[in-house]
Amino acid sequence: SYQGSVVGRQGSQHRGAVPGTVYRARDGYLNIFISHTQPGAWDRFVEWMGRPEEWVNEPRYGMLPFRQERVAEIDAKVTAALADRSIYAVFEELQEQKLPAAPVLTPSQALADPQFRVRGVAQQDSDGLPALRPPYRRNGTWPAPGRVPEVGRDTEAWLNGLGISSHALRHLVEGGTVRLGALGESVPLREKPSRERPSSSAPALPLQGVRILDFSHMIAGPYVTLQLAWLGAEVIKVESRVRPDTFRIRDGNPNWEQSLPFASLNLGKRSITVNLKHPQGPEVIRRLVPHCDAVVENFSKGVLENLGLGYEALSRHRPDLIWLSLPGMGSDGPRSNYVTWGPNIMAFTGFTYLWNHPDQPHPVGSQVSYPDYLAGLFGATFLLAALCHRRATGEGSRLEVSQAEAAAYALGPAYQYALLTGQDLEPEGNGQPGHVPQGCYPCRGDDRWLAVVVPDDATWRRLAEVIAEPWALQPQWRTLLGRAQEAATLNHKLSEWTRNWERERLWHRLLAAGVPSAPVLDARDLMADPHLAARRFIVTVDHPVMGTLKMPGPPIRLTETPPRPTPPPLLGEANQYVFQELLGMTPEEVARLTAEGVIG
């Protein structure tokens, strides 16, 4: 919407790193991620590679745009260097140099890794079956895996807890409204909420009055605080001119206020500048903490503790403080100090292994750092729960969400299969057992595709009627077994048929026939999608430097208190509000601290 371009698919090759893809070694694959936003990473990688002459003699290799023009050459050298090396040996060596890398593991291999074993990622549920524990820790304790409930087991206790008498309960059971021990309709406890639109005087948002001190950067932490800002929390983002949020410079933009990635993840927040490395910087933070309800951080292990700004230190200034950390591998365990980016965590946890076609031996991976967003949503949910807990008890909470464990938890079925069988599910591409055909099929035009799912024989009959060609009416296709035995042939024939259709026309034709389908949308399609627009998902904000921006909006809808989008902050734009209004500093004190490099 801003640059007029669409980012295309590049397999595992990340836009912001070179090397930045999946490489083959002697005994497997691993992801290496050398970004321009990690100071000194390229120089350390050159040393690890043995100082290749052309890389040393040409300083422009140190600049990402130059390396991006030479991806094939760099990848060839890296692949050659890894040919006789073990993935775990390379993993350990690169991590010793604080270089992001991780082997491509299956779920069973991840479960067997010392990091997951030490942190007890797999436990037993109350029935004695192996299961993944939830991916968060509160006050040093992980919750145990839940129990799979029997149908209707808790209905009677739930209704009694709502004050419904035994006599009323019997009446509901006899009338068929509730069935104990079986599926049934919910009890109509209250009238349905009004569908009337809220009044023009905008009501308070759910988290209005909650203040979050945000030390996080890049994706995972900012995605937590973005959800809270949508809900009305005041998010105060701590940056400095020495160390701004890395996303302000990820795309190589010389102006820190012209970063689209930063803008999309920091809507509705405030920004202050405090140099935490200055001796007086931590003291400014300690003065601010009593005014805040929660702290969110995703620094490397020990960074804030070494500054005297860890949980133990700050909770003395605010005993009911809620603290959320989002470490890559976790705050303890043998790999807790490892440097990880989203693509590394995807490799380590099984995402990259599973995200592939069954006939493609080399893992494909993705450019999108899904673990960051998963950990962000988990973290926002747990922080909301901690706020509710504090409202009920007055107690604060120290929360931890490991990004790797959040990613593993999102792959629950694959991990559960590994736990129960000792084996791993295979990559399935766009397919799914029992659904034949299922996939993304080409349509008329450049890179236009339609996803089609046939979950049963009845759906196939409806699809065959739409196709209306002799090959689709052959008897071997009428059953799932027949279609599965010749799935490759069937997918080829279906692809040849869909190529002749305009995508939207075929989509609506299939939907009308009762065949599940949907277009494969790119970014331009999404920004123009009428459904997203009707649901107010695409929001418009006026940025003081970039002008009018269209951005993704909140992922939830609230009928009475809809979120109100506001622009992302300029660097340090809330300094006067925070330092003078909240902390009561005089203009002279602010001027002195600015001159000394503490703030500003």
What descriptors fit this protein?
27 helices, alpha/beta, about 35% helix, 7-stranded mixed beta sheet, 3-stranded antiparallel beta sheet
Describe this structure in words.
The protein is of the alpha/beta class and 600 residues long. The protein is built from 27 helices and 17 strands. The strands form five sheets. A seven-stranded mixed sheet has the order 6-12-11-10-7-8-9, with helices on one face. A three-stranded antiparallel sheet has the order 1-2-3, with helices on both faces. α10 packs across α17 and α17 crosses α18. It is globular and about 85 Å long. It starts with 16 loop residues before the first strand and ends in a 5-residue tail after the last helix. About 3% of the residues have low confidence.
